[in-house]
Write a structure and sequence with these properties.
Elements lengths: L4 E6 L3 E7 L7 E7 L12 H20 L5 E6 L1 H13 L1 H4 L2 E5 L7 H7 L1 H8 L16
Parallel strand pairs: 1-4, 4-5
Antiparallel strand pairs: 1-2, 2-3
Helix pairs in contact: 1-2
């Protein structure tokens, strides 16, 4: 089964969208998205700017999912912004399916180090759900 896993790593100011194409390969940066709602004279975005950015990202990913561009989604963000993303993704849960979340600020981490941070999540997603889990049982014979 071939699947495309997208990873959105975001904070209030910027989001980076990565793709994982196989269990062995690194992450490929698809695009970087700056928050278009930040007022240029302000250094940090206000809550309304962050809300608008979260809504924008949810709409973009909902559109791309409906076009079949990815199968699985992982959201990575610091706690405050992750809550905003969850709120907007919760409204679109039917079309986005199950979304995994990671509560960390990793926007400025390299793709190689991001892959290391997300190793367990990605391994779980790449595991073929049709393959039975092997258990070793010891049978005692009388």
């Amino acid at each position: 089964m071939i699947k495309d896993i997208w990873i959105l790593v975001a904070n209030r100011s910027v989001a980076k969208l990565f793709e994982s194409r196989s269990i062995r390969d690194g992450l490929e940066l698809i695009k970087t998205i700056s928050n278009p709602y930040i007022v240029p004279t302000e250094k940090t975005p206000h809550d309304r700017d962050a809300d608008a950015f979260a809504r924008h990202l949810a709409f973009m990913l909902d559109r791309d999912r409906s076009r079949g561009r990815f199968d699985e989604l992982v959201l990575v963000a610091e706690p405050g912004f992750l809550g905003k993303l969850r709120a907007y993704f919760g409204k679109r849960a039917g079309s986005l399916g199950h979304v995994r979340t990671v509560n960390k600020e990793l926007v400025h981490v390299s793709a190689k180090n991001l892959r290391l941070h997300l190793n367990d999540v990605l391994l779980e997603l790449w595991r073929d759900p049709r393959r039975p889990i092997e258990h070793r049982h010891t049978h005692l014979r009388a």
